[in-house]
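Regression check, zinc ion case 377:
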Amino acid sequence: MYELLKKDGRAKRGRLHTVHGDIETPVFMNVGTAAAIKGAVSTADLQQIGTQVELSNTYHLHVRPGDQVVKKMGGLHKFMVWDKPILTDSGGFQVFSLAGLRKIKEEGVYFQSHIDGHKIFMGPEESMQIQSNLASTIAMAFDECPSSVADRDYMQKSVDRTTRWLKRCKAEMERLNSLPDTINKHQMLFGINQGGIYEDIRVAHADEISKLDLDGYAVGGLAVGESHEDMYRILDEVVPHLPENKPTYLMGVGTPANILEAVDRGVDFFDCVYPSRNGRHGHVYTKHGKLNLFNARFELDDRPIEEGCGCPACQMYSRAYIRHLLKAKEMLGMRLCVLHNLYFYNHLMEEIRDAIDAGRYKEYKEETLRGFETPED
Ligand SMILES: [Zn+2]
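Current build output:
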């Protein structure tokens, strides 16, 4: 159940009660694709860097090790030793972006594994069954994620099918949650709004799926190559058509600036691979924008990545040392950068929540965005 604690303009401060504990929103979910955050980050680390929700990918776990293996091991929480909330995506996005030859039919999608090419079928029921086996806290509906530049006619047909699929997901989830051997019988289901950059298709779709009384609603199919202006315009139009008393999740977004803007438009769940991916390449976030630690100017820099940062990297190590590790291709260098970046995002969300609580979100957003544009001394 979601509690809307406070609104500041359109920014929402909420709390989602789950069987794995409460999620304070706005929240940034830390992406652990194959039940691990890339960069040798363990669940013990996640406790330390303020992670509230871990996100795992259904498609990846279905292909390897297999959701039956995870189920036999007691579900994802036991398997990866993480007792807080986990969100699993539906597998749809990976099916459409990663998998080899695929065929979309009314019943679902036929495609080939990107690992060994073997044929797989996934439809709404299969996606729900896999996510039920994984036993995540929140399951995502199986949808088609069409290219944002797909033509209008295709987009409308695709969105209509996604609505039919959503109804099948809901029925299947209810059935699975009632079975005696289901690990998490309180698994929640979020629906996904699609429609590319066509506002009218998106708004009609949002109105329709809102009637289904799901546990939360996501805006999908953004941050896939359209401009930031298009993304903000779509959010301006669509979010008011999603239920305010449910979590609103903007999938796959984004930069700290994107998050600040989306929160201002009523979004309260986020996920993105940027902090871990950038960290693995030595790109670290600070209040004064991103730094590339490979840069020669950090060779003798004895400051932490960011003064005052409470992350395990900044508590102990200098920029010069981390730069050396990165250049020597020591795994520790990568790990420290990923820990810092995830802490930075998690901490940003904490500041966002405090600013909404204090009724000063607009000022906070403007100050923080200005900071990102102002290089450090
Ligand atoms: Zn740090």
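Comparison notes: The longest helix spans residues 331-357. The mean pLDDT is 95. No diff flagged against the previous build.
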